[in-house]
Amino acid sequence: MAIHSGNEKTASRIRTKAGTITTVLLLAGVVTAAVVSATPGPRPEVEENERSKAAEHAKGAEHAKGADRDGKPSKADMEARKAAFLDDLDAKVEAGELTQAEADETIARMQARFAEHAKGADRDGKPSKADMEARKAAFLDDLDAKVEAGELTKVEADEVIARMQARFAEHAKQIDRPSKAA
User: Fold this and answer.
1) Which of 38, 50, 136, 167 is most open to solvent, judged by the fewest CB atoms within 10 Å of its CB?
2) Among 99, 134, 103, which residue's Cα sits nearest to residue 119?
């Protein structure tokens, strides 16, 4: 059995008290944090975060509502959008915000944009199916013209076509889509 001096006993008691005080302070901090977080009332930083999350969710749901599996709007959704656009123009004409001529001009510009879109590229910048078919036909016509002109043999033209089909198949494999190279 060890005999401790008075100073060692005092130091031991002080360390014990310090540990107890530290524990009490930590518990008080935890309890205070729990009470503050459970207290009802306005908390702007939380409310703003919840509002922005709700707005993002609503925006995503609104977009997905009329979309098909590829994320593109369905025909019914596009018709509804068109009707809403035309109704909005009519309301602006009735309110005097636009003249009928300005509304007609806006409609003509939109029709021109849609026509350009239909013949050129899809929304994401990719060529439309019709444009790709036209390019394919022009490519094959060019190969046929080179064969007729004697610049290529039929075998060489077939090899060019086979290489192109292989490239399309490789590209389709990279983007996880079935190939339509034929």
Assistant:
1) 38
2) 134
